[in-house]
Amino acid sequence: MRLKLHFSRLGFCLLPLFVVLACQPAPTHVEQGATSMAQFIAGMPKAELHLHLEGTLSPQTIVTITKRNGIDYFRSVEEVKKSLADRKPGLMGFLGHHNKSRDVLQTQQDFYDATFNLLKNLKDNNIIYSEIFFDPQPFTNRGIAFDDIINGIDTGRRDGEKTYGITAELIMSINRELSVDSAFAMLDLAYAHRGKILGLGLDSGPEYGNPPIKFKAVYQRAKEQGYHLTGHHDVDVRDSLKHIWQSLDQVALERIDHGLMAVDDPALIKELVRRGICLTGSPVKRATDPRMQDVDRIIYLDAQGVCVSLNSDDPAEFETGYLTNMMVVFQEESGYSRADMVRLMRNAFTASWLPEAEKQNYLIALENYLRTHESGH
Ligand code: HPA
Ligand code: ZN
Fold this sequence. Notes:
By secondary structure, the chain is of the alpha/beta class. It has 2 domains: 16-57 and 116-373, Metal-dependent hydrolases (TIM Barrel); 59-104, no CATH class. The protein contains 17 helices and 8 strands.
């Protein structure tokens, strides 16, 4: 559906700062109306809702931090790249490397640097609004103070927001393989910082045996404390559909991360549409994958009217990298038009936890972008 525009382009760009950012045209070397699809995607104002701070550490950043912290693995970029290349398939294979590189982060400065670097990458991808996951428990379990983690991340994103003129919110995530007591302890540690954190998530693995219902009471308390609620339902996980139903009916999650196994359950698809619950899809590709993952599932769900968005998840750990590149690959594999790509991006803004008025402004900015860049190849 197209929004009616009530602003001239100039008048529109005189709206508040966040809208000014959103209405920036594609890079200046690109001729209006003659942009290639890749340029169109690059210049599109974007939101990203499924992005793990710990999955954004580049091989070079990892090596810089291991040297600084005197860590005896990942001493060279080649070593990090080999570990990435040697991963086993599936979620647990992915987590093997992810957790090892996550563990190089130790000090407040490390968390600051990781976050500030990430915001630079977001800016380069025209991501004007993001909600970023971070997982405190593996760090606090190793004796790192919660305050060091959150203060490093919060200061890094505030400085990044000022430097790059973008907005970055935070989602604190439960490690699902850990105990309910541990999740409650994390919530207690976060209490004094809850103004800095927008939502509570659920990630890591294995997912089978650690369903969303396990954390129902934690989610309930988090909701009482003002957090938004989301949770991971990775693809190709046993009982994924059961977990998604649990999250809708018993845990009252507002959003489903991944959730693409819904393609296999027509009743679930209907329910997602009826309730307007959005899925944060992550159609990534590893170097060893013959094709990008999940393209067909996303096309199917989109055609059924499910609100599904595109997200990069762990851009340093997948060949598809950050959002612009990932969207370009998705467009090539799906054959989606410009309007289709904008519809998926509308879904990201719709699914975001932005205040309603800001959300509407961003959505208008996106429609304006499509209107002014509609032609081309
Ligand atoms: N799923 C589960 N845990 C994760 C993910 C994911 O996609 N990314 C980082 N930790
Ligand atoms: Zn994820």
